[in-house]
Amino acid sequence: MSAAPAADCLFCRIVRKELSAKVLFETERVLAFDDIKPQAPVHVLVIPKDHIASLNEAPEGADALLGEILFLAREAARSKGIAETGYRIVLNTARDSGQEVFHVHFHVLGGRRMTWPPG
Ligand code: 5GP
Ligand code: ZN
């Protein structure tokens, strides 16, 4: 369904355990790990194990996978103890969003009061 893993993709390398990360949990298709440069007391990244560069490149048929990632982002918030106090899920896509890593990832941010609008 998705493109082949990209040899030089940072998050594919984390999936393959070539690079270490503080893994919160993993399932057959999804990996959740702490962001290396947290922007809040809780900052988890939830990614598909298969390489998808961004939401713009998500193929037909990825709807179930994307829904699974969203629910697992909720699970990450629960396991970090911020589900009730609140959290923000961010999915940066392409240039103007500031997307830096081109392997689709949901940020789960919480543990502090968020501001709106985002920067
Ligand atoms: P983006 O700006 O693409 O939405 O977010 C990329 C995120 O990946 C950033 O929050 C950044 O701190 C995080 N990140 C970049 N490199 C690494 C890494 O090697 N390990 C981990 N755990 N997070 C990373
Ligand atoms: Zn990748």
Instruction: Give a short account of the largest sheet.
Output: 5 strands, antiparallel
Beta-strand proportion:
15-25%
User: Strand order of the main beta sheet, please?
Assistant: 1-2-3-5-4
Overall mean confidence score, pLDDT? 95
* Secondary structure category: alpha+beta
Count of helical regions: 2
Helix content: 10-25%
Question: Stretches where pLDDT falls below 50 for ≥5 residues?
Answer: none
Q: Tell me, what's the shape?
A: globular
Radius of gyration based on Cα positions = 14 Å
How many β strands by DSSP? Answer: 5
Bound molecules: guanosine-5'-monophosphate, zinc ion
The topology string of helices and strands comes to: HEEEHEE
> What separation lies between the terminal Cα atoms?
34 Å
